[in-house]
Amino acid sequence: MAPPATIRWFAVASALVFSLLISPSTAIYCDEDDCYDLLGVSQNANASEIKKAYYKLSLKHHPDKNPDPESRKLFVKIANAYEILKDEATREQYDYAIAHPEEVFYNTARYYRAYYGHKTDPRAVLVGLLLVLSGFQYLNQWTRYNQAIAMVKKTPAYKNRLRALELERSGGTVNKKKSNKQLDKKKEEDLSKELDLQIKGAEKPSIWELIGVRFILLPYTIGKLSLWYGCWFWRYKVKKAPYSWEDATYLTQRSLRVPPDAWGNIDEFTKEDLVGKRLWEKSNLESYLAEMRKESKRRR
Length: 300
Hints:
Blueprint: H1 4-21, H2 24-30, H3 35-39, H4 47-61, H5 69-86, H6 88-99, H7 104-116, H8 122-152, H9 156-170, H10 181-192, H11 211-216, H12 218-238, H13 245-256, H14 260-264, H15 268-276, H16 282-299
Helix pairs in contact: 2-7, 4-5, 6-7
């Protein structure tokens, strides 16, 4: 005779196997019932037949028609079965679960994805995401800008510029009697507003640089770039026209990989000399760079 513990283990294992054999993946839809049986239709019934069966049972078991508690419970099951079978997607999933009861995890995942998955309009999600990212971006830019301004205001160069501006506003005379520090601070703030502080890497925030605004203007940007490239190709590739000064300057700057702000600080004479070397041509650029390297060695 087998020990009692072995018998209990065998009973539990048998119950587990039996629970798997009764298709547990379909139980998540209509519990232990069959959705088709609840509505009294076959699995081949069309949408019209399912709808008629549901309305017929509703007249019999709806709480407004039948106050019996058992009838109320049955109506809840009927309504749930109808919700599953009236939708083509969920009905297809239920039919698949019936035909493939062994794919328990797959059928369960499909069910929860259909019923509890994110059903928000993707466009609303995209707009919300862009708004949140743009808000964080704007706040981050303001924080960086204010921190940079605070650091600049502590430098001697800034204080010298502030004193020079104060002398200019006062006609060259400054009142040395400082009776009120708060007044001096207010005066300093007023003068600092007149100073145009351009801090590289921490520019003043602009709504045109936000991700959301750039995304909205993306079609316009793409169209503008396409038109620009089209005109460039027609003018210089097809018609073989000579480069204009602006375009030659752009090619020179791009060839030398000079940032726009640094290029703006170069004097006009140097720009003309660089443009005249036609550095957008590979051979000219290589010769120029080799010459610059030799010049750098000589200075050392």
